[in-house]
Amino acid sequence: MKTLRRIAILFFGVVFAISLFMLARILVQGRQEQAAFDRLSAALEQPESADGQNPEQSPYEALKEQNPDFFGWISIEGTNIDYPVMFTPDAPEHYLRRAFDGSSSQSGVPFLSADCFAGGGNWLIYGHNMKNGSMFADLLNYARKDFWQAHPLIQFDTLEEEGTYEVFAAFYVRVYTEGESGFAYYEYTDISQQADFEEYLAQVSGAALYDTGVEAQYGDQLITLSTCTNRSQDERFVLVGRQIQHQDS
């Protein structure tokens, strides 16, 4: 019995040590990945390119030169959300586990749905819900109305324009398998037709956790942010906003 007890203690000790090692490695990797994004964000404040040879080039153009998959930048003041947004229509989830520079990354990079297009009326952006609070983890705070009241605006800038969006709905929803019926929010990337726009708004309104009093009208450019909840594999948390102002870049 004593021998078995020693073996059991040794076994669980090894498992515990391995778990601590894996956790430490994940934490270190997470800090390194976030530091890389922080450097990209800091570069946006620089009026010149890195070599100082092109003062007329915008920071977004410089990022586009670094990586042609760069589409825009999303940020929400007062949160950790401050990231580039990628677009690879021929490889929809290319940045699911890749960093901005293409290297392997647990955090990935927020990316546009492959079905999005200019004029479609809805920018659908996916991002991970990381346990360290990075990426789109802060979206889940919008389940509380007081958090929305304190953080009502989303900034989403592209090479073409700087855009400010007003949040008007937050909700939980499932990802449905083929043959199931339900609100498949991820299918509404083209709401350029009034009937599709109104159908999307009606379903968003029906799913919303609370009433914001903000109303969208046909013709408004919308933005939809999506992340996992970690409560179940097929559940997502979604935030929807309408553009209230834009400025050509």
TrEMBL record:
CDD domains: Sortase_B. The chain crosses the membrane at residues 7-28. InterPro entries: Sortase (IPR005754), Sortase_dom-sf (IPR023365), SrtB (IPR009835). The keyword Membrane applies. Coiled coil: none annotated. Pfam families: Sortase (PF04203). The active site is at 128 (proton donor/acceptor), 228 (acyl-thioester intermediate). Keywords: Hydrolase, Membrane, Transmembrane, Transmembrane helix. It comes from the Bacteria. GO terms for molecular function: hydrolase activity. NCBIfam families: sortase_srtB (TIGR03064). This is Sortase, SrtB family. It comes from Subdoligranulum variabile DSM 15176.
